[in-house]
Amino acid sequence: MSISKEERNLQAKQYVESLYQSISELTIDDLSTHVLFEQANLILENLIHIKISAKGFRGIVLTAIVGKYLNSNYDFLNRFYDCNPRAIFEDGISLALRDLKIPCGKSDPLNVAKNTNVLNLDWAEGKRPQRAAEAVVSYLHLLNDNFNEPDNYRFLVNFFMFRLKELGDIYASSVVTAVTNDTESQQELAIKLWSFVSKAVEGGTIPQFFIGTLLETIYLYDSNTVVEGTKESVSGTNTTSQKPGDLVIIKNDVISNIIEVTLKIVDSKRLSDSYDVLVELGYLDTPITFLCRLP
Question: pTM to 2 decimals?
C-alpha cells in the first residue's frame, strides 16, 4: 500500500526520533563488546567528529539508513536518489535532528551528493575532507553487507546514532564566555544597528546601504579593513551572487565577518539557507551576524 509524501516524511522523522530514544541511555561500554565495534569505530572517527564541520557526509549515511527503513529493497549504494533524499531529509530527518539538538543543515546530503546515484570511491575522490567521503562509502558498505544479519545491522545503526548523539552533546555543552570591555561594546553597536532595522520601512535596500555606510565610517581610518556590499543590489540571492552575505568585513584581504541585513524575521529556514550558502562558498568558519526583526 502506497503512502503520501507527508506520511513518508513523518515516518522518516519518527524513525530518527525512535533511534535516538533507543540509544539515549547507552554508554560506549554497552557497544564496545560487539564484534563489529572496532571496524565501525575506525570508520566513524573520520565521519562524525567535532573537527569535521561538513554535515553532508553524515547526512548521507543517515538518509541511507532511513531510506532503507522506509523501503527494505532500497539500494543506497547504487541508487541513492530512489529514496527521495531531499524530501525525507528536509521535511523529516532534519526536523527530528533539530528537535534532538543534533547539528544539521537544511539539505545535508545534497550538499555533497547532489544528483549522485552511485556512492563509491570515485564519488569520494576530491571531496573535502576526502577521508569523510571515503568513510561514507565504507560505512554504507558495512551496512549493506550486514543488512541480512539483524543483530549486526541494528548495532551499526545504533552505533551511528550514538555517535551523532555524542556530537550533539558536545555542542550543547559549549560555553560562551562574555568579553569585558571599558569602551562601547560590539553588543551595544549591534543593539543600535538592530534598532534601526526593526524600525525601518519595508524593503531591504535602504537598511543595507545605511548600515554598510555606518560600518564604512567605523573603519574609515583602518587601512587594513574594507566593507563590501554597501551599494550592491539586494534583489539576488547570496548563492547566485556568489557572496556569503549582504555585507562583508575584510581585514588584511581575508573576510573576518559576514553581516545579513533583513527586515524579516530570521527563522530556522533562513538559518538553514544561510548555512547552505556558507558551505557552498567556503565560509562556514567565518562569524556571521543577523540584523533582523525579532519574532
Answer: 0.66
**Could you tell me which of 46, 40, 36, 39 has the C-alpha nearest to residue 124?**
46
C-alpha cell at 2: 502506497
Neighbours of 265 (CB within 10 A): 10
SS3 category, 249: strand
Write out the three cell numbers for 17: 526520533
* 154-159 LR contacts (CB < 8 Å, sep 24+): 155/31, 155/34, 155/36, 155/37, 155/40, 156/36, 156/40, 157/19, 157/65, 158/19, 158/22, 158/23, 158/26, 158/31, 159/31, 159/34, 159/37, 159/40, 159/41, 159/44
| Integer Cα distance of 32 and 90 in angstroms | 33
CA nearest to 97, candidates 12, 196, 178, 33: 12
Q: Where are the domains of the chain?
A: 5-172, 186-293
Per-residue pLDDT of the chain (295 residues; tens, 9 = 90+): 678 999 999 999 999 999 999 999 999 999 999 999 999 999 999 999 877 777 899 999 999 999 999 999 999 999 999 999 999 999 999 999 999 989 887 788 888 888 899 999 999 999 989 999 999 999 999 999 999 999 999 999 999 999 999 999 987 776 655 555 555 566 777 777 667 666 655 555 677 888 888 889 988 888 899 999 888 755 444 544 567 898 999 999 999 999 998 877 788 778 878 888 888 888 888 899 888 776 6
Peptide bond into 207 cis (omega under 30): no
DSSP single-letter state for residue 234: S
For 224, 227, 250, 256, the CA distances from 253, given in Å and listed in that order, are: 8, 11, 6, 9
Rg of the Cα atoms in the chain: 22
